[in-house]
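>> received
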Amino acid sequence: MKIQNPETNQLPQGIEINDIKLAVDSSGYPLQTIIAQKLLDKDFMIQDEWSYVDSQSNSLRTMDIVAQKMLWNLEKYQPRIRPELNLLIECKQSNLPYIFFLNNTKPIRYEFPIIAGVPHEEITISSNDTISTYINPVYATLGLEAEAFFRETPEFCSTFSKCSRRGKNIELSGSDAYNGLVLPLIKATQYFESSQKSKSSAVYHDAHLTIPLGIVDAPMFGVRVLEKGNELFPLPWVRVLKHESFENNEAYNNQKLYALDVVHKDYFDTYMNEHLIPFAKVFSERVHKHEKVLLAGKGFIRDMESQWPPSLEERLEVKSFIKRTSNLIPKLLKK
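>> returned
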């Protein structure tokens, strides 16, 4: 049955349908709809206008899209740690470009990707040839640092701006870019991580590979600052870093370097198919492989001191008392 529109449901005088269309096209909602459909086609589950609590203002805010994809097959078996890929997405449209000031170095370690929901945020690794232990975040324990998606492929930046017009001139606005993309994505990620915490005593856990992602329908350009002059070039994928400090009595844990990806809308399929999805597959395989280590929060690497630096993931085993003490007892007796 077709819905009949009443005669009174019309635009008022002075407003044309093209005016409304122009406002819709520039709002970001068309892009949000397009990206959501692309994710549905890739077997993601979608939540539009996902709400989260801003930790600073304690107010309720929304993220354009939160997407979820299970990385395990329920029909085959039920793992105790169930890997998932979660995308927290904010969409932006603009006729004017975003400018990314690229870093000259890439970080060794940073809070990306966030792995939420696991029973232990860090894994303590011991060996048979030393009494020292090695404490690692989960992503490093799984060897994700060695993957190209983590460090090698993307360009990094700590500062970026959005161009705006002032008369005939073009100006850069860092606050628009920060408040429109960085701030909401980082806060949403922090809320998501906190909301997914599980008790270590639980039987089943989820391992959420969490990717904050800004998707822009606007020109994206990178700037490399050189002594002889700035180099400017188009760049469809940038990883943006955001440093935060916290009040914490533990000196080693009072600051974090967060990150989010900003991707051009026409690079989104390439980003997903050639970079993120293969990375998520590696993550899933290693969660299954090292499930017992992740559940216990403890692992073992044989001869870690004599073969340093260790290749953590390849040599990682489940810790047992016998392995730990087999070589240490003779060493301690000699002392």
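>> The chain has a mean pLDDT of 89.
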